[in-house]
Amino acid sequence: MAIGIIGDTERKPLAFDKLGAIVAALAAYGALLAPFATFKANRIVQGETRAIWEALPPLLGYGLIALVTVAAVIALLRTPLTVRMASALAVLVALCFLAGAAADNLTPPDNAYARVSPASGFWILLLAFALLVADALTRLNPGPVVRLLFLAAVLALVGGMLFAGVWDGLSILKEYASRADTFWAEAGRHLTLALGSLAAATVVGLPLGILCHRVDRLRNSVLGVLNAIQTIPSIALFGILIAPLGWIAAYVPGAAAIGIRGIGVAPAFVALFLYSLLPVVANTVVGLAGVPRAANDAARGLGMTDWQRLATVEFPLAFPVILTAIRIVLVQNIGLATIAALIGGGGFGVFVFQGIGQTAMDLVLLGAVPTVVLAFAAAIVLDALIEMAASDRSQGRAA
Fold first, then answer.
1. Domain range spanning residue 358?
2. What domain count does the chain have?
3. Is the residue at 4 inside a domain?
4. pTM: predicted TM-score of the whole model, two decimal places
5. Sites in the chain below the pLDDT cut of 50
6. Each residue of 203-214: pLDDT tens digit?
7. How confident is the model over 167-202, as pLDDT tens digits?
8. Is the domain of 185 the same as that of 147?
9. How does DSSP assign 119-141, residue by residue?
């Protein structure tokens, strides 16, 4: 009896994505095993954790689990990058909305003391799918303008949620509500420390870097001193500056009147300024050293003076490298300014250390979250500017 062959086409095995496997594992743990929200009778007492299906109304809870499951499968398989990114963004937006819904669902009516905050499952899911979005963006490699527009859209969405009161029931927003005036005052001090020290380091560091580039004997000694300063721990440097600045405030006429004191903003500003000098000076030297000799020779052939060559040839070509230093310094200073609160310098660190002292983790988050957002946004913006500057430099060379 003849046996007919129905078909000989071999089925291709499913292809799995390595990063997607990690994301899927994190998603499974965050959605099914880890708690989604924590309920506290007040801001100090130990909280009680709730799973997704306990923290949310049934329709929303099981809907979130279904959405996470679909997105995890998409991440696990080698699917198109746009599909992976869209599914991850859908989960992230749902998480943001449902965190507020969990607070509304768990808080008893007319209870001003209860606190609801996202628990480990929420943060694990947020991390997993944010990682998937970052991976998709990296593989898609969008241009700097697209990245800036994406950042603007994310910030607009977050701002819209805050304005609409989606998260008003969360503990971190209740901490903010009782400290709104203080929060914005400390935000101003934080930005003053981070941006002011960067501006001062740029004003001092650029000429010093140019001088080090031109004078070889000066370069090693200056960079050596700045390297030594960079190795001093931040808290130690803040403490070292208290004594000399206190002496200046006591014995130099007018010093205290302009804000120079042993504790407060002055030592924090000086410490951040000192930390900022090394990247600015070093990258200025490296950027100027990387200017092609042919460009300088052509400028000399046109009869340009040293200052004309510096302003019109060397500095524009070195600008992307110098801008990289500014990016490093700004992100570094946004983080280090948090520690300034230990010596009365203010900033978001005030909430971080108050929260640690009161064992109120949501107060810690009130200081930590804006610091992370500022650093993250600054990094994206300056990375985009660096790429655009480097592209302009490449086009200039081609021309």
1. 180-398
2. 2
3. no
4. 0.84
5. 1-9, 399
6. 999 999 999 988
7. 988 999 998 988 888 999 999 999 999 999 999 999
8. no
9. -HHHHHHHHHHHHHHHHHHHHH-
